[in-house]
Specification:
elongated; Four Helix Bundle (Hemerythrin (Met), subunit A); Helix Hairpins; about 300 residues; two-stranded antiparallel sheet; 11 helices
Length: about 300
Protein backbone atom coordinates (compact mmCIF):
# COMPACT_ATOMS: atom_id res chain seq x y z
CA UNK A 1 0.00 0.00 0.00
CA UNK A 2 1.40 3.38 -1.04
CA UNK A 3 1.60 6.36 1.29
CA UNK A 4 -1.32 8.04 -0.49
CA UNK A 5 -3.45 4.88 -0.26
CA UNK A 6 -2.65 4.68 3.44
CA UNK A 7 -3.61 8.34 3.88
CA UNK A 8 -6.92 7.79 2.08
CA UNK A 9 -7.68 4.72 4.18
CA UNK A 10 -6.92 6.68 7.34
CA UNK A 11 -9.19 9.48 6.10
CA UNK A 12 -12.06 7.04 5.50
CA UNK A 13 -11.76 5.50 8.95
CA UNK A 14 -11.42 8.83 10.74
CA UNK A 15 -14.29 10.39 8.77
CA UNK A 16 -16.59 7.48 9.61
CA UNK A 17 -15.83 7.96 13.30
CA UNK A 18 -16.36 11.71 13.04
CA UNK A 19 -19.69 11.32 11.25
CA UNK A 20 -20.94 8.85 13.86
CA UNK A 21 -20.10 11.39 16.55
CA UNK A 22 -21.76 14.19 14.55
CA UNK A 23 -24.95 12.14 14.32
CA UNK A 24 -24.93 11.51 18.05
CA UNK A 25 -24.22 15.16 18.88
CA UNK A 26 -26.93 16.46 16.52
CA UNK A 27 -29.57 14.31 18.19
CA UNK A 28 -28.34 15.40 21.61
CA UNK A 29 -28.37 19.03 20.50
CA UNK A 30 -31.94 18.71 19.28
CA UNK A 31 -32.97 17.56 22.77
CA UNK A 32 -30.78 20.12 24.56
CA UNK A 33 -30.47 23.19 22.30
CA UNK A 34 -28.19 24.98 24.78
CA UNK A 35 -25.47 22.33 24.43
CA UNK A 36 -22.59 24.45 23.20
CA UNK A 37 -20.09 21.61 23.70
CA UNK A 38 -22.04 19.34 21.35
CA UNK A 39 -22.25 22.11 18.76
CA UNK A 40 -18.52 22.79 18.99
CA UNK A 41 -17.84 19.06 18.60
CA UNK A 42 -19.99 18.93 15.44
CA UNK A 43 -18.21 21.94 13.97
CA UNK A 44 -14.75 20.47 14.64
CA UNK A 45 -15.69 17.13 13.09
CA UNK A 46 -17.06 18.65 9.87
CA UNK A 47 -14.12 21.05 9.71
CA UNK A 48 -11.72 18.09 9.95
CA UNK A 49 -13.53 16.23 7.17
CA UNK A 50 -13.48 19.34 4.98
CA UNK A 51 -9.80 20.01 5.58
CA UNK A 52 -8.67 16.46 4.87
CA UNK A 53 -10.74 15.99 1.70
CA UNK A 54 -9.39 19.32 0.47
CA UNK A 55 -5.86 18.03 1.00
CA UNK A 56 -6.68 14.78 -0.82
CA UNK A 57 -8.40 16.56 -3.73
CA UNK A 58 -12.04 15.50 -3.26
CA UNK A 59 -13.60 18.78 -4.38
CA UNK A 60 -17.28 17.74 -4.31
CA UNK A 61 -16.99 16.42 -0.79
CA UNK A 62 -15.11 19.54 0.26
CA UNK A 63 -17.81 21.79 -1.21
CA UNK A 64 -20.62 20.02 0.63
CA UNK A 65 -18.71 19.96 3.92
CA UNK A 66 -17.84 23.64 3.53
CA UNK A 67 -21.50 24.58 3.05
CA UNK A 68 -22.47 22.63 6.16
CA UNK A 69 -19.57 24.11 8.10
CA UNK A 70 -20.75 27.64 7.28
CA UNK A 71 -24.21 26.83 8.66
CA UNK A 72 -22.66 25.32 11.79
CA UNK A 73 -20.50 28.40 12.24
CA UNK A 74 -23.60 30.61 12.29
CA UNK A 75 -25.24 28.32 14.84
CA UNK A 76 -22.11 28.29 16.98
CA UNK A 77 -21.88 32.08 16.99
CA UNK A 78 -25.57 32.46 17.84
CA UNK A 79 -26.43 34.26 14.58
CA UNK A 80 -29.25 31.81 13.83
CA UNK A 81 -31.34 29.44 15.94
CA UNK A 82 -31.46 25.67 15.76
CA UNK A 83 -34.60 24.13 14.30
CA UNK A 84 -35.85 20.70 13.38
CA UNK A 85 -35.42 21.63 9.72
CA UNK A 86 -31.77 22.53 10.27
CA UNK A 87 -31.15 19.33 12.21
CA UNK A 88 -32.74 17.26 9.44
CA UNK A 89 -30.67 19.06 6.80
CA UNK A 90 -27.44 18.46 8.72
CA UNK A 91 -28.30 14.79 9.16
CA UNK A 92 -28.95 14.61 5.41
CA UNK A 93 -25.52 16.15 4.89
CA UNK A 94 -24.01 13.38 7.04
CA UNK A 95 -25.76 10.77 4.88
CA UNK A 96 -24.52 12.45 1.69
CA UNK A 97 -20.94 12.56 2.98
CA UNK A 98 -21.19 8.87 3.81
CA UNK A 99 -22.28 8.14 0.23
CA UNK A 100 -19.27 10.04 -1.08
CA UNK A 101 -16.96 8.18 1.29
CA UNK A 102 -18.39 4.89 -0.01
CA UNK A 103 -17.57 5.99 -3.56
CA UNK A 104 -14.03 6.87 -2.48
CA UNK A 105 -13.70 3.45 -0.87
CA UNK A 106 -14.80 1.72 -4.07
CA UNK A 107 -13.30 3.87 -6.82
CA UNK A 108 -11.05 6.47 -5.16
CA UNK A 109 -13.44 9.17 -6.44
CA UNK A 110 -16.09 11.12 -4.56
CA UNK A 111 -18.82 10.19 -7.03
CA UNK A 112 -20.75 11.91 -9.80
CA UNK A 113 -23.51 13.38 -7.63
CA UNK A 114 -22.82 16.89 -6.36
CA UNK A 115 -25.88 17.13 -4.03
CA UNK A 116 -26.73 20.59 -5.39
CA UNK A 117 -30.24 20.51 -3.92
CA UNK A 118 -28.91 19.70 -0.45
CA UNK A 119 -26.28 22.44 -0.67
CA UNK A 120 -28.98 24.88 -1.77
CA UNK A 121 -31.05 23.92 1.28
CA UNK A 122 -28.08 24.34 3.62
CA UNK A 123 -27.36 27.74 2.07
CA UNK A 124 -30.99 28.84 2.48
CA UNK A 125 -30.98 27.75 6.13
CA UNK A 126 -27.99 30.00 6.75
CA UNK A 127 -30.50 32.85 6.74
CA UNK A 128 -32.40 31.21 9.59
CA UNK A 129 -35.45 29.00 9.91
CA UNK A 130 -39.05 29.90 10.66
CA UNK A 131 -39.31 27.24 13.37
CA UNK A 132 -36.11 28.03 15.17
CA UNK A 133 -35.36 26.74 18.66
CA UNK A 134 -33.63 29.56 20.57
CA UNK A 135 -30.02 28.73 21.25
CA UNK A 136 -28.37 29.94 24.43
CA UNK A 137 -25.88 32.65 23.52
CA UNK A 138 -22.34 31.39 24.12
CA UNK A 139 -20.30 33.21 26.71
CA UNK A 140 -17.76 35.68 25.27
CA UNK A 141 -14.93 33.63 26.73
CA UNK A 142 -16.25 30.49 25.03
CA UNK A 143 -16.49 32.29 21.67
CA UNK A 144 -12.96 33.63 21.98
CA UNK A 145 -11.66 30.18 22.94
CA UNK A 146 -13.38 28.56 19.94
CA UNK A 147 -12.04 31.23 17.57
CA UNK A 148 -8.50 30.79 18.87
CA UNK A 149 -8.84 27.02 18.53
CA UNK A 150 -9.67 27.26 14.82
CA UNK A 151 -7.66 30.33 13.85
CA UNK A 152 -4.61 28.31 12.85
CA UNK A 153 -6.56 25.40 11.42
CA UNK A 154 -8.48 27.63 9.02
CA UNK A 155 -5.20 28.73 7.45
CA UNK A 156 -4.17 25.18 6.76
CA UNK A 157 -6.95 22.61 6.54
CA UNK A 158 -4.64 19.64 7.00
CA UNK A 159 -5.73 18.05 10.30
CA UNK A 160 -3.45 16.82 13.02
CA UNK A 161 -2.29 13.29 12.29
CA UNK A 162 -0.81 10.71 14.61
CA UNK A 163 1.59 8.28 12.99
CA UNK A 164 3.89 5.58 14.37
CA UNK A 165 7.51 6.70 14.77
CA UNK A 166 8.53 3.47 13.06
CA UNK A 167 5.60 2.79 10.74
CA UNK A 168 4.93 -0.63 9.34
CA UNK A 169 3.13 -1.21 6.06
CA UNK A 170 -0.52 -2.18 6.33
CA UNK A 171 -0.91 -5.75 5.19
CA UNK A 172 -4.68 -5.68 4.57
CA UNK A 173 -6.02 -2.82 2.48
CA UNK A 174 -9.47 -1.72 3.57
CA UNK A 175 -9.36 -3.79 6.76
CA UNK A 176 -11.46 -2.65 9.72
CA UNK A 177 -9.89 -1.00 12.69
CA UNK A 178 -10.18 -1.15 16.45
CA UNK A 179 -8.91 0.97 19.31
CA UNK A 180 -6.30 -0.39 21.74
CA UNK A 181 -4.60 1.53 24.54
CA UNK A 182 -0.99 2.18 23.62
CA UNK A 183 1.03 5.35 23.31
CA UNK A 184 4.55 4.09 22.82
CA UNK A 185 6.19 5.10 19.57
CA UNK A 186 3.77 7.87 18.60
CA UNK A 187 4.80 11.31 17.48
CA UNK A 188 2.59 14.21 16.37
CA UNK A 189 2.73 15.71 12.88
CA UNK A 190 1.15 18.91 11.60
CA UNK A 191 -0.05 20.21 14.97
CA UNK A 192 -0.41 23.99 14.68
CA UNK A 193 0.49 25.72 17.93
CA UNK A 194 1.94 22.54 19.33
CA UNK A 195 4.23 24.37 21.74
CA UNK A 196 1.25 26.00 23.43
CA UNK A 197 -0.53 22.66 23.69
CA UNK A 198 2.49 21.05 25.32
CA UNK A 199 2.84 23.85 27.87
CA UNK A 200 -0.84 23.95 28.71
CA UNK A 201 -1.48 20.21 28.83
CA UNK A 202 1.70 18.82 30.35
CA UNK A 203 0.27 18.76 33.85
CA UNK A 204 -3.03 17.16 32.85
CA UNK A 205 -1.78 13.81 31.53
CA UNK A 206 -2.68 12.24 28.19
CA UNK A 207 -5.68 13.37 26.20
CA UNK A 208 -8.35 10.93 25.02
CA UNK A 209 -6.92 11.01 21.48
CA UNK A 210 -3.35 10.37 22.62
CA UNK A 211 -4.35 7.36 24.74
CA UNK A 212 -5.29 5.11 21.81
CA UNK A 213 -4.16 4.07 18.35
CA UNK A 214 -5.84 2.32 15.41
CA UNK A 215 -4.92 -1.28 14.65
CA UNK A 216 -6.13 -3.42 11.74
CA UNK A 217 -8.76 -5.93 12.81
CA UNK A 218 -7.00 -8.50 10.63
CA UNK A 219 -3.89 -8.19 12.79
CA UNK A 220 -5.93 -8.61 15.98
CA UNK A 221 -7.61 -11.72 14.55
CA UNK A 222 -4.19 -13.15 13.74
CA UNK A 223 -3.05 -12.50 17.31
CA UNK A 224 -6.22 -14.18 18.58
CA UNK A 225 -5.44 -17.30 16.55
CA UNK A 226 -1.83 -17.34 17.72
CA UNK A 227 -2.91 -17.04 21.36
CA UNK A 228 -5.32 -19.92 20.81
CA UNK A 229 -2.45 -22.08 19.54
CA UNK A 230 -0.34 -20.99 22.51
CA UNK A 231 -3.07 -22.08 24.93
CA UNK A 232 -3.27 -25.52 23.30
CA UNK A 233 0.50 -25.92 23.53
CA UNK A 234 0.40 -24.78 27.16
CA UNK A 235 -2.19 -27.44 27.97
CA UNK A 236 -0.09 -30.14 26.31
CA UNK A 237 2.96 -29.14 28.34
CA UNK A 238 1.00 -29.19 31.61
CA UNK A 239 -0.13 -32.75 30.88
CA UNK A 240 3.41 -33.98 30.26
CA UNK A 241 4.29 -36.75 32.84
CA UNK A 242 7.89 -35.59 33.14
CA UNK A 243 6.74 -32.50 35.06
CA UNK A 244 5.83 -34.66 38.04
CA UNK A 245 9.47 -35.66 38.50
CA UNK A 246 11.03 -32.21 38.18
CA UNK A 247 9.98 -29.44 40.63
CA UNK A 248 11.80 -26.75 38.64
CA UNK A 249 9.88 -27.66 35.49
CA UNK A 250 6.65 -27.55 37.47
CA UNK A 251 7.43 -24.00 38.61
CA UNK A 252 8.30 -22.89 35.09
CA UNK A 253 5.20 -24.50 33.60
CA UNK A 254 2.96 -22.84 36.17
CA UNK A 255 4.54 -19.48 35.36
CA UNK A 256 4.03 -20.14 31.64
CA UNK A 257 0.40 -21.04 32.30
CA UNK A 258 -0.21 -17.80 34.19
CA UNK A 259 1.41 -15.61 31.53
CA UNK A 260 -0.49 -17.40 28.75
CA UNK A 261 -3.82 -16.90 30.52
CA UNK A 262 -3.13 -13.19 31.07
CA UNK A 263 -2.07 -12.77 27.44
CA UNK A 264 -5.21 -14.53 26.23
CA UNK A 265 -7.43 -12.33 28.40
CA UNK A 266 -5.67 -9.16 27.23
CA UNK A 267 -5.98 -10.01 23.53
CA UNK A 268 -9.66 -10.90 23.93
CA UNK A 269 -10.38 -7.57 25.66
CA UNK A 270 -8.50 -5.74 22.91
CA UNK A 271 -10.60 -7.41 20.22
CA UNK A 272 -13.91 -6.55 21.90
CA UNK A 273 -16.01 -3.65 20.60
CA UNK A 274 -18.18 -1.34 22.76
CA UNK A 275 -21.82 -2.41 22.60
CA UNK A 276 -22.68 1.28 22.37
CA UNK A 277 -21.51 1.20 18.75
CA UNK A 278 -24.65 -0.82 17.99
CA UNK A 279 -27.24 0.76 20.26
CA UNK A 280 -25.93 4.26 19.49
CA UNK A 281 -27.51 4.00 16.02
CA UNK A 282 -31.04 3.55 17.36
CA UNK A 283 -31.86 7.22 18.17
CA UNK A 284 -31.30 8.24 14.53
CA UNK A 285 -33.46 5.37 13.28
CA UNK A 286 -36.23 6.29 15.74
CA UNK A 287 -36.07 9.96 14.67
CA UNK A 288 -36.28 9.10 10.97
CA UNK A 289 -39.23 6.77 11.58
CA UNK A 290 -40.99 9.43 13.66
CA UNK A 291 -40.61 12.00 10.87
CA UNK A 292 -41.79 9.50 8.26
CA UNK A 293 -44.88 8.71 10.35
CA UNK A 294 -45.57 12.36 11.14
CA UNK A 295 -45.00 11.92 14.87
Amino acid sequence: MSEMDAAIQEFLVESDENLSQVEKDLLELESHPDGQEALASIFRAIHTVKGTCSFLGYSKLESLAHTGETLLSLLRDGDISLSGEITTALLSMVDAIRKMLACIQESNHDGEEDFAELKSLLTRLQKGSDAGIPMAAPAPAAIQSAQEEHSHTDENDTPETLVPAQAEEHSDEGAGTAEIPDLSGLRTLGNPGGDKAEKGGASHGLSAVDSSIRVDVGLLDKLMNMVGELVLTRNQILQCPILLDDPSLQTSSQRLSLITSELQEGIMKTRMQPIGNIFGKFPRVVRDLALACGK
